[in-house]
Amino acid sequence: YNCITLWLAATGRKPQNGPNPDWEKKVTEYFREKLKENNAVNWVPSLNDVPLHYLKPNSLVKFRCMVQDMFDPEFYMGVYETVDSNSKARVSHFGKYRDAAECGPHQEIDLNSSQMVTSERQTFYCVPVPGESAWVKEISFFQARVSPSTSYTPSRHKRSYEEDEDMELHPSKQKEQHLGNVGDIHGYGEPKRLETEASAGHQMITPNCSPPLDLNFPLPGEKGPACLVKVIYESWDSFKVNDILEVYGVLSVDPVLSIANSKERENSSSPLAPVECMETVEEQRVHSPPASLVPRIHVILAQKLQHINPLLPACLSEQESKSFVSSFMLELSPVRAELLGFLTHALLGDSLAAEYLILHLISTVYARRDVLPLGKFTLNLSGCPRNSIFTEHVYRIIQQLVPASYHLLMTIENMNRSRFIPHKDYTANRLVSGVLQLASSTSLVIDETLLQQGQLDTTGVHNVTALGNLITWQKVDYDFSYHQMEFPCNVNVLITSEGRSLLPSDCQVHLQPQIIPPNMEEYMNSLLSAVLPSVLNKFRIYLSLLRMLDYSISEEVTKAVEEDFVEMRKNDLESITADDLHRTLLVARFLSLSAGQTTLSRERWLRAKQLETVRKARLQQQKCINGNEL
Amino acid sequence: MSSPASTPSRRSSKRGRGSSSNPATPHADEVQSPPSQRRRTDDSTSTGDLQPMPTSPAVGTQSPNVQDVLFSSPPQFRHSAIPLEFDVSSPLTYGTPSSRVEGTPRSGVRGTPIRQRPDLGSARKARQVDLQSDMPAAEDAVASEQSLGQKLVIWGTDVNVTSCKEKFQRFLQRFIDPLAKEEENVGLDLNEPLYLQRLEEINMVGEPFLNVNCDHLKSFDENLYRQLICYPQEVIPTYDMAANEIFFDRYPDSVLEHQIQVRPYNALKTRNMRNLNPEDIDQLITIGGMVIRSSQLIPEMQEAFFKCQVCAFTTRVEIDRGRIAEPSVCKNCNTLHSMALIHNRSMFSDKQMIKLQESPEDMPAGQTPHTVVLFAHNDLVDKVQPGDRVNVTGIYRAVPVRVNQRMSNVRSVYKTHIDVIHYRKTDSKRLHGIDEETEQKMFTEERMEMLKELAEKPDIYDRLSAALAPSIYEHEDIKKGILLQLFGGSRKDFSHTGRGNFRAEINILLCGDPGTSKSQLLQYVYNLVPRGQYTSGKVSSAVGLTAYVMKDPETRQLVLQTGALVLSDNGICCIDEFDKMNESTRSVLHEVMEQQTLSIAKAGIICQLNARTSILAAANPIESQWNPKKTTIENIQLPHTLLSRFDLIFLMLDPRDEAYDRRLAHHLVALYYQTEEQMEEEFMDMAVLRDYITYARSYVNPRLTEEASQALIEAYVDMRKIGSGRGMVSAYPRQLESLIRLAESHAKVRFSDKVETIDVEEAKRLHREALKQSATDPRTGIVDISILTTGMSATARKRKEELAQTLKKLIQSKGKTPALKYQQLFDDIRAQSDAVSLIFVYLRWENRTYISKC
């Protein structure tokens, strides 16, 4: 479409006017403007949805991703000059937005040219947002009409979309199908993978056939394109690891890169080759993987995303999105009531637990006071039946509601085997991802009911400690082998357990099922299918939107709260501590927000206190039943 | 010598051989040109020849252009068609003929490297013409000069070899470091020129390397320094010449392996890896970082030696773009394909690739560390191991990656690396007990002013303590204690009187109810101090704290892996759940907490490591809730031997009164509605606090004044007196030492060089507060230090003795019975004694002991 042509016009050889420092800025501005126009954004094919081989090289693409690792900055030829060996004509080119310096058959690059400008750019290794829910992918795909620039046939995809939706409604079926129809277009991952591997194999005829490339996704079993995103302009300092970005840029799948790759590998046997000894084979593999597997994107525009929910406008501060917010606010309370009802059913009729679950789902770390994260609300849902599929279904429902989530099965084996903490692999010079490398506002559902007796080994202990740290401080200490680096995160942790969880939590709610469905599977499935897609979408908007609202407490209420606390302490010295106040304040905060109110009112405070009292009473009761076990 | 070594050795060889092996091309015009011009042309042409060379030369290929763009000097060249690669890959590279020179290099000295480059490539003839036409304008004075072009300016730079050399010689001969410190220059006379003494050292030791601190150079001559930074390739060889001339003047009989090589270090321009940018290419830079990987030694062929199989004619071929052009025809006998490579007569140089990673302190939050590749050459190979913190001085290089030799396409990306000239291990000095921070952390003038201004404020002590962990409510005294711990006392050395070092670090134990944000405080401190470690007593084992010996999987050598205590040398080791630590782990702490060392005897490695770490520990009471009826020892069940090593022991309890509750509630609620900016306004920035502490730690070293020591003596005597009235000891010398440390630390807070009475007062107050909390005997309500020093209060001890007496009497009165029933015995005693309710406890504890003893 027009963007692509624009792109070609802009970046084509425009060299005669010499190196113009503003040029880059202009391009960025130009694209920013163009993309604003009549939904141009939707016309840009997204690497998230469209398989790589349907995209034209050097065309404009977008990619929604998480920064997994940052490589070293690289210097490249910003402007270079070629000399025609026949005519001696000199032509200068721009090296921006491309990987290889291009020159015709009779041309040669003049490395000594005075026109040469060396520039710097940064490479990020990006992966799709870990744990991104299926519905996010679908909806964002559906929104983006397939651009004519790709030969990707929309009709086929349409069918697959329907299939997907079908599967959504029968989540259990999804798995089987997923495994079954590898050949189907449905999973963009698998067929693509096969093809790309084939093509990759085609391109690099390497005698020492290397094991398949590990694309370094944080979560096991993830699919999707990983990408080397090259950020040119100076602002790359503002991007951080684990940030979610949406980048618009030029797709580069230059086969030269792959040739370089195989070529260098060939050479690596001869130790004298001067370039090879700079990087090990492993490093080569990681830093310059075949472009067909890991494409490069040369960024023109990049923006940090506050959320990945495609149902919401990307930036909430803009004018038009404000009207969206205010119109949604009008119907907030029916949505909340409906969601509460839905979750109550999902939690087997326990409305208190459902209430707390809503609070949990809209919680987010909104500030940090030196080391203390404020606004985290880790919920421990105890009293879940052991060895039943209940917890799994709870996760399914959450998956349907939040844009990104992960279900962590806390089995001894899992704890001992899997790698939670990302660590630096110095041989390959990259950050090897771990389960806990999650983007901000991902829901992590930990299933503790699966825990059996057994022994945790060193890794297991480390993993549990890391989980504990994540919950308490909302940070993960990445392992750099000689030292540790602290990465703050913002992950909602929900722990389902039988008794009190062995992990710390902010709030424990004991589940009291009102109904025991004879067939859990059927019950849950019918529950999901009973919800209209439009209602489901409302839930999704509700949860994502409320996380981003501001909140304050008025002076007056502050006083009242203080009074209240002093009063409570007077009456019950032993049980009311500062922690209780912390928790009640949190509950009050999220309670207000869940009703769309951005200030705390006296009523909400009382309601929060009441909720807390009921919850505590329940815990007390549970303690009595279980005897002095706790 | 680093990269210098690799390139130079090759080049030097060239020099030596140039006339014989490559006598070909001096063109007529060159030969006839006046010497000055000739030199110029020589230089330029040889450049052209060198340019395609593999290691650094490739840099030369494009970086000149970079420089061309970046440096406007010399402007008159800008329009010339000649690329100014001169400054980059010029033959003047900073090397001197290295080990290849047999015997002493006296000859080499005379023939300075610049003149030894008659290696004329024929390729650049056209350029020479340009050169000649262009040059005179720039240097008319030079051109007219007949004295062998002594005053030439090197191409593309403003470096005049002769004046540069002279200046540097003057520097060597005259420079006296006004700021020299005793420790650094052991055995040197501070009033004599520093570098002449260094040269003398070279003469005696025979290591032909002269390390030159760029800082000295800068203070001596700004211009000289600037030239060195901008054109290291040209300037360093000039320095080499200068150094060698002086050296062989002074020590004509000296025999060295090769010529002296000057190694500048501590270039101030760049310190951080993150700031490296294209402008730094081919400049001298110094960056700090941590070695993360080092490759094996790579023998790099510099020159191949070929011998004709037929006539035994030999020839040498230099490496060109990583390849050796094998001569297909013997020049002597014209036989085809008769030349064979003779390996052991070819020239190789050592080379090593090292990966350097940004040090964690330099990294902005939320980003991954950058790495940079270093190439070390010759004797710098294997100088550093992975894990070392080093400051590297070297020349930053960028090399284009050629996709394919036969294809003209080039990947537009450069590979960058640093050719190492000098390593400086930043942590090597830690073993000598010098605070390295003084060298490490540089404050800007403004920052220093700001800090000093802060220190002037009368309430700085309160301000700082308020800035400490603002999210944690109240506990003012505890925060003050921790603040003093962060500053630490003055380090004293009594080793000559046989007592060794006195501990300057302050140890603090926090104990109290769970949920009183002890861990949070620990986390805060751990985040605040640059070298802090955080461990939890539950998971740390003795080896994890100290050090363990393991076999390195690569080298198969035993290596010592240091644990938390050693790693936090000069920092603070935060230990959470101190009480959960097992016995053997705790025993390790005894040595660390008083002697500040760590002795290790494992797997044949016996050593004593420094562990000058302050310990901040947190312990929970044994019954989960603090029992106010029990002493500290009873509550936390730690051996008194360990407790007495803590200077301050604080209780963090829930105070439970209304006013406190109200304030707490207010604080917490505020936490939940204040925005981030408001919070920042209110409190001092964490960074300021950190800088303040670092500054105080490194620059302020207070000493006791007369009055202060009097006050201390009084305080101590007072403390002793309290106890002596009741027949017990209430203070030990250890408490006096604590007081001194605290007073010193408080003086540091004020940036004062003298410990004055107010410091002592505060130390006394804080110490008393802590004692009041932790050493009060719950039975009598009297502060009793022996609770902490012996684990039992005086009254308790007395009671115990009484009980033993009673019991003994009782048993004796019973006559000889084989066994006593516990319950019956207990009842009997109860009947006799009034104080049973209290004794009961002890009886329960120790009945077995007593019964078996009796």
Automatic annotation (TrEMBL), chain A:
One of its GO terms (molecular function) is chromatin binding. GO terms for biological process: DNA-templated DNA replication; sister chromatid cohesion. Its main location: nucleus. It is found in: Nucleus. Residues 168-178 have a biased composition (Basic and acidic residues). GO terms for cellular component: cell junction; cytosol; MCM complex; nucleoplasm. Residues 148-182 are annotated as: Disordered. Keywords: Nucleus. Belongs to the MCMBP family. This is Mini-chromosome maintenance complex-binding protein.
TrEMBL record, chain B:
Residues 460-668 form the MCM C-terminal AAA(+) ATPase domain. Residues 1-72, 94-127 are annotated as: Disordered. It catalyses: ATP + H2O = ADP + phosphate + H(+). Residues 1-10 have a biased composition (Low complexity). The keyword Cell cycle applies. Its main location: nucleus. GO terms for cellular component: CMG complex; MCM complex. Keywords: ATP-binding, Cell cycle, DNA replication, DNA-binding, Helicase, Hydrolase, Nucleotide-binding, Nucleus. It is an enzyme of class 3 (hydrolase). It is found in: Nucleus. Component of the MCM2-7 complex. Belongs to the MCM family. Acts as component of the MCM2-7 complex (MCM complex) which is the replicative helicase essential for 'once per cell cycle' DNA replication initiation and elongation in eukaryotic cells. The active ATPase sites in the MCM2-7 ring are formed through the interaction surfaces of two neighboring subunits such that a critical structure of a conserved arginine finger motif is provided in trans relative to the ATP-binding site of the Walker A box of the adjacent subunit. The six ATPase active sites, however, are likely to contribute differentially to the complex helicase activity. Acts as a component of the MCM2-7 complex (MCM complex) which is the replicative helicase essential for 'once per cell cycle' DNA replication initiation and elongation in eukaryotic cells. Core component of CDC45-MCM-GINS (CMG) helicase, the molecular machine that unwinds template DNA during replication, and around which the replisome is built. This is DNA replication licensing factor MCM4. The lineage of its organism: Eukaryota, Metazoa, Chordata, Craniata, Vertebrata. The gene is MCM4.
